[in-house]
Amino acid sequence: YILMDFNSLDVLVEHNADERLPPASLTKMMTAYVLAEEINAGRVSETDMVKITENSYSQNPLFAGSSLLYIEPGVDVSIADLQRGIIISSGNDSSVAVAEHIAGTEAVFAEMMNTNAKRLGMTNTHYVNSHGLPDPTHLTTARDLAILARAMINDHPQQYSIYKELEFTFNNIRQYNRNTLLREDPSVDGLKTGHTAEAGYCLVASALRGDMRLIAVVMGTASTKARKNDAASLFNYGFN
Prior knowledge:
Strand content: 15-25%
Strand order of the largest sheet: 2-1-9-8-7
Number of strands: 9
Distance between the termini: 18 Å
Helix content: 25-40%
Number of helices: 8
Largest sheet: 5 strands, antiparallel
Structural class: alpha+beta
Oligomer: single chain
């Protein structure tokens, strides 16, 4: 875990913050960051319609049992909906759809993710996909995730505001933001949860109290309750 001050970049407390670990769906923070970069550069628009391929189809066997937006091949879906599918619904299908739309293939998109990680100073991170399903070389650290969270908040405040939305309905399926701190602590306004058997339960969160913003990262906890409580404890420590 790590607790970072957004403004000063001071680390208030950390434990094994540079241990390389599987990030699970925390990966989607970088997918969303790259998308925000492309939108701000004018290469992609939120109104663009994306044709869903078999790779990004929600019934792709790769996605079995995982988080999905439930998109179907041959149907056009807007970037705005896919963006919320990534951030709120944590959809693996929407992540691949965006990756293919931006880069042609997910492999090329992963190169863009790594280029951005290097530029931001995420020295212990390597991405091989847009969604975070397990791969032995797909790794990051708590410190690198704090750096990424800060970049998202600082560089793309408009897109960052999506992270605090509590639910998203697509195709008549309502899904709720898994960051339960959003409902319990009014100072929390993002970011992202993740879970796989390999990664455990992970959470990157940010909270703003007065003019002080903190970023907390916890990885490898045993339950959804543990990741929430650990992040809340870090915030209470830091703000106190």
